[in-house]
Amino acid sequence: MDLGIKGKKALVCASSKGLGKASALALAQNGVDLTICSRTPEAIEAAADEIRSATGVTVHAVACDITTPEGREKALAPFDAKIDILVNNAGGPPPGNFRDWTRDDWIKAVDGNMLTAIDLIKATIDGMIERKWGRIVNITSGAVKSPIAILGLSNGARAGLTGFCAGIAREVAKDGVTINGLLPGPFDTDRLRGNMKIQAEKAGVDFETFFAQHGAEHTAGRFGTPDEFGQTCAFLCSAHAGYINGQNLLMDGGAFRSTL
């Protein structure tokens, strides 16, 4: 399927690996020119080289901390903030017990997983409105729909972003701009494997056995793949998804049990 977005310009945040990189690659496969960013220069340059080689599109690699004003300015600079597609993405705050979290912990979580995305939307959405076309996808978490107690910092900050976007999505739909959330469950990424290695070590079991067992116990009988996540993100950014707006698509293989 031709997604109808060849020649569009996208900013994909936190895209040196994992779901962000998969989303950037899927957009590039459909002819979208990219700015990708992450904190580590070597990792983001390697990702850019890989995507350029695979697709031939223009890829600007920016090493920055997207949670800072200076970082956002650097990430927006290659296309002079004239972005057609914005994919907001950021690593989640650490797990823990809410009794241990300080105000500084909460501010850091809200800055990273709510206010950063809002600031990038603010910087790009008026240009989308003027051009009468734009796509904004927020990669958040399945915990937005099914909260996880030890991820309270993430639950709160990401739910705040979701609520904010629910309001403005309805204001810009008439201008050809859509805003949606893409909510991942467990995907086979370096982050998932790293967390599960720690769990396997604590349980005193072989990691590969532990990983395979937990995948088999999932509703889908496996973990998701970054590629299928990236392709779904690209579709939400496509010309065919203009009537999908203000939604939060849960990608968890059916693990969340709900009739609606």
Notes on the protein architecture:
This is SDR family oxidoreductase. Belongs to the short-chain dehydrogenases/reductases (SDR) family. By secondary structure, this protein is of the alpha/beta class. It is 47% helix and 14% strand. The protein has 8 helices and 7 strands. The protein has helices spanning 18-29, 41-55, 69-76, 103-131, 152-172, 190-203, 207-217, 226-236, and strands at 9-12, 33-38, 59-63, 85-88, 134-139, 177-184, 248-251. It has a 7-stranded parallel β-sheet, with helices on both faces. α4 links the parallel β4 and β5. α1 runs parallel beside α2 (41-55), α1 packs across α8 (226-236) and α4 packs parallel to α5. The longest helix has 29 residues, at 103-131. The model has no long low-confidence stretch (mean pLDDT 96).
Summarize the biggest pleated sheet: 7 strands, parallel
Radius of gyration: 18 Å
Helix and strand pattern: EHEHEHEHEHEHHHE
Number of helices: 8
Could you tell me how far the N terminus lies from the C terminus, measured between alpha carbons in angstroms?
29 Å
The average pLDDT is 96
Low-confidence region ranges: none
Helix content: 40-55%
Q: Please tally the β strands and state the result.
A: 7
Shape field: globular
**β-sheet strand percentage:** 5-15%
* Strand order in space, largest sheet: 3-2-1-4-5-6-7
SSE class = alpha/beta
Family: Belongs to the short-chain dehydrogenases/reductases (SDR) family.
Protein name: SDR family oxidoreductase
